[in-house]
Amino acid sequence: MELAQHPVLASLIPVCLLVGAGWLAGRMRWVGPEAVRGLSNLVFMLLIPALLFRTMSAVRFEQLDPRPVLAYFPVALAWLLAQIGWRGFTPRSVVLALGGTFSNNVMIGLILVELAYGKPGLVTLLTLVSVHSLIILTAASVLIELAQARQASRDSAQAPRLLKTLWSAMRASLLHPIPLPIAAGLLFAQTGWSLSPLVDQPLRLLGNAFGPLSLVLVGISLALTPLAGHWRAALPVAACKNLALPLLVALSGWALGLGGLAWQVIVLAAALPTGANVFLFAQRYRVEQELTTAVVGLSTALGLLTLSAVMLLTAALAGS
Prior knowledge:
By secondary structure, the protein is an all-alpha fold. It has one domain: Na+/H+ antiporter like fold. It is built from 12 helices and no strands. Helix 1 (7-27) packs across helix 8 (197-223), helix 2 (33-56) runs antiparallel to helix 8 (197-223) and helix 9 (231-255) packs antiparallel against helix 10. It is globular.
């Protein structure tokens, strides 16, 4: 088999080329920061919901396997806490721990999993995506509020704010253009109906536009991300995300008896680069915004190499 025809590389090469094309567009300033924000809104508010709803609209509850969620999230939460314990319980350590835990499951993960593992793999990933932000971001929000309260030595005065933050984080995670279409698609599938071609065809076209546009946007964002002066501090965080978390999730999946495609998908999900939501989190709390931007950029750049290694290794171990 020629190297370029290896199934893992055959799925990674188009991803790398599209990210590279976006990087070139960003370096040449063909697309500016304002246009990137507008295109990102288009992707998240229209293209992603179309893809997610259409994918899940034919999935019955009995087809869903809860084991990937059980293998992934206890480990991810434990890893989040371990990183905070390693750096000390401060707002800065919470933000950096989130950078070492929160995956870019949408912009990169969806298209990569679909190319590599097809619709069955995509369904497994969407099972994780449906609760990813709710679990990880809600936990991080509570932890940073506690860290800020501890730092200010005003724990009792901060209790109402903590409860308010918990509710706001949960509501924002549920009322979001990612979990909502997943839930709506699943509920539609349980009716036994099928989408009319008049509806299915536009959804298919919108979903098809998501993959290339999202990867080009990743490349543009990478080109616009300043790493100078921050890459040394960002490297350990990127290593936690790209290397340590997938190893832990792989061991967890094995311990639960998960194998084959589902195991490969959860390890890939853990190996994906740091998601952009981490920067938004840092921006919200005004903690290490420049360093977090560098973490996202460096993790993404290194991800082109680490994802290749993880996918090749899991394919060999899973015997596929």
